[in-house]
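Deliverable D2.4 — example input (structure tokens):
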């Protein structure tokens, strides 16, 4: 804990009864500037990109580890620090806006495969982040966009290290696919891909960095850092954070979601601190081994609005997929037919966002109906979706 954090902690003892002091600190989708408890892994990651410190371009590398092991926190912090300390302050993390500052000969870019989930999306993300000129989204072929990126880099003698996060998910692509897209731009682009599984057979990245799950004490440190920054003084006890860390079983995403939901329970009760019931409610609101909230919120607008209505339906409206689709399609802000909603629901089940659970039929004939159960924290999803 540095001086800034110690001063902020003391400022929180000023008698203000607010429970939450910093929304981002307790947001499971947000990352701290400095990842907690990941020093050895960070060293191995820095080894993998070491040529960048001498104005070189590293070999393609792959960072992998189980869900909730802090991979995204590591690479977003890496991009931020490399951009500020190594490549002259140019930072271009792909969002909906473009950076306007002129880039040096070497740039470091972050791309979320959940948003840039195709070859076109990859090229667009990198070119849009690097170039000040508007990049067309329509009326241009993927090959033409790649050629434009190649030409832009070669004309300016530029090179770029692209960090591609969340590869290998049902809605994205394998790490090998990402590196293959940049192979034609030889000598100008290197990649750091980030996923959950070991490298594919037949794909041999230059460096592989494995990220282990958090041990219980490290996960306690992660939760303590978040609570210290985001909550009022004495709003949560250490033993409560230790309980969440033990329940999280090495998964920081689930543990942070549980803390987020526990804080929500306390706010709903008008409390200025968490009691044990709030902590229990927070853990109960997060399915173990479920789908990360970030993956759900990265779905298309149509899929997200279908899910937003699904999580508010009562039991009678969820007795079968057909009944659920009719209830969702009837909502005034859903501009989709019953058939389209049905298709979306089945697709979400195929992708593992929802579970299909068989229910007892009135007769023994025909295929038994099924209802849909979300595989993510519906409370965290509602709060974050509504706040967006």
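Example output (designed residues):
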């Amino acid at each position: 804990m540095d001086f800034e954090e110690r001063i902020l902690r003391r400022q929180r003892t000023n008698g203000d009864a607010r429970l939450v002091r910093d929304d981002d600190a307790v947001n499971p989708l947000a990352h701290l500037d400095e990842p907690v408890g990941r020093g050895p892994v960070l060293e191995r990651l820095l080894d993998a990109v070491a040529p960048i410190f001498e104005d070189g371009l590293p070999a393609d590398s792959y960072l992998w580890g189980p869900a909730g092991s802090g991979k995204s926190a590591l690479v977003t912090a890496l991009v931020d620090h490399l951009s500020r300390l190594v490549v002259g302050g140019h930072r271009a993390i792909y969002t909906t806006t473009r950076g306007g500052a002129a880039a040096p000969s070497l740039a470091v870019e972050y791309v979320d495969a959940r948003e840039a989930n195709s070859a076109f999306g990859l090229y667009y993300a990198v070119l849009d982040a690097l170039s000040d000129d508007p990049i067309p989204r329509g009326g241009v072929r993927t090959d033409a966009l790649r050629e434009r990126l190649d030409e832009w880099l070669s004309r300016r003698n530029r090179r770029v290290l692209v960090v591609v996060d969340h590869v290998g998910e049902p809605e994205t692509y394998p790490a090998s696919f990402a590196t293959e897209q940049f192979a034609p731009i030889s000598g100008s682009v290197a990649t750091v891909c980030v996923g959950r599984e070991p490298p594919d057979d037949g794909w041999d990245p230059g460096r592989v960095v494995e990220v282990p799950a958090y041990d219980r004490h490290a996960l306690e440190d992660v939760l303590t850092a978040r609570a210290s920054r985001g909550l009022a003084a004495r709003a949560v006890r250490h033993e409560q954070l230790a309980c969440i860390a033990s329940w999280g079983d090495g998964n920081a995403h689930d543990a942070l979601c549980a803390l987020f939901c526990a804080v929500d329970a306390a706010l709903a009760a008008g409390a200025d601190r968490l009691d044990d019931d709030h902590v229990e409610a927070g853990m109960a609101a997060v399915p173990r081994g479920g789908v990360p909230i970030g993956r759900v919120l990265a779905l298309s607008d149509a899929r997200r609005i279908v899910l937003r209505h699904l999580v508010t339906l009562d039991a009678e409206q969820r007795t079968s997929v057909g009944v659920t689709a009719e209830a969702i399609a009837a909502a005034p802000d859903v501009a989709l037919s019953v058939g389209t909603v049905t298709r979306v629901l089945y697709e979400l089940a195929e992708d593992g966002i929802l579970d299909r659970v068989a229910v007892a039929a009135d007769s023994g004939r025909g295929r038994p109906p099924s209802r849909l159960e979300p595989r993510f924290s519906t409370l965290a999803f509602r709060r974050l979706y509504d706040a967006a």
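Strands lie at 61-64, 92-93, 106-112, 159-167, 189-195, 207-210, 354-358, 370-374.
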